[in-house]
Write a structure and sequence with these properties.
This protein is α/β, with parallel strands linked by helices. It folds into two domains: 88 residues, no CATH class; 158 residues, 3-Layer(aba) Sandwich (Rossmann fold). The protein is built from ten helices and nine strands. The longest helix has 19 residues.
């Protein structure tokens, strides 16, 4: 299979997997540690003015949108999974939260122009292939108003941890590049989607991670992509298994 065709398949399967697990999200997936995520959201909010417009890109079921609303901001959440957005709307009905809207849109399809004071993208960029990373970062920059803030997370594991997955993938004939993890994807995806109702006793969170495409870029490459897009990093940190970056759009 050619790489472009394979990447299209990876994205389609990711959307289907998240659609499948969405009904269990607020029931079973609320408990992983997120202290660092919340700390960096607070750092972001401290850099924004009152009643700012925030884009939650790759928002899933809206896990952190309550924090943004409680701080008095207006939020647009986008995600390519319609079922995850449905769960978000159930949790945050618009009649109760008029400052919050959701729209079905992938990161690759964003086309906002200087519309937001802040953009966040948490726990989503690991599903983005290296070919799409620069364009998405540029779309974040275009979505921000001058001086606006971006907060993103990147998987913090060392790239060496993925060498065996890369070598297995190449041996299987997959068109992978270094940093991609897909060698167990088909089997794990089949197991996850075969369940009538997702049960964490039947499939672990680790197994779910194996069921969806992941790419882990080196941090120096992430910093270079941000810089090339005109986004200046103001703060970095690690926690909850992620690197956390706050960057400002050049005025």
């Amino acid at each position: 299979m050619e790489r472009a065709e394979w990447l299209k398949k990876m994205r389609t399967q990711a959307e289907a997997l998240y659609d499948h697990i969405a009904p269990a999200y607020w029931v079973k997936f609320g408990g992983y540690p997120d202290a660092a995520h919340r700390q960096f959201i607070e750092k972001l909010l401290g850099r924004l003015g009152a009643q700012s417009a925030i884009l939650d890109a790759g928002c899933g079921a809206g896990r952190y949108d309550g924090m943004l609303l409680e701080a008095g901001h207006n939020v647009l959440g986008i995600d390519q999974s319609g079922s995850m957005l449905a769960r978000a709307r159930e949790h945050f009905p618009q009649e109760r939260f008029p400052g919050l809207r959701y729209a079905k849109m992938g990161l690759q399809e964003m086309d906002f122009q200087a519309k937001f004071d802040g953009v966040i993208c948490m726990d989503a960029l690991e599903h983005v292939c290296p070919e799409d990373w620069p364009g998405i970062v540029a779309r974040f920059q275009k979505a921000l108003r001058p001086g606006g803030m971006l907060y993103v997370t990147v998987d913090a594991a060392e790239l060496g941890e993925y060498r065996e997955a890369y070598e297995r993938g190449k041996a299987m004939g997959l068109p992978v590049v270094f940093g991609e993890v897909a060698d167990e994807l088909d089997a794990a995806y089949a197991q996850a989607t075969a369940l009538e109702a997702l049960d964490r006793r039947a499939i672990s969170g680790e197994k779910l991670d194996l069921a969806v495409y992941h790419y882990h870029p080196p941090m120096e490459q992430v910093r270079a992509w941000l810089d090339q897009a005109g986004l200046a990093i103001e703060e970095e940190g690690t926690g909850d298994g992620y690197a956390h970056l706050l960057a400002r759009k050049n005025a």
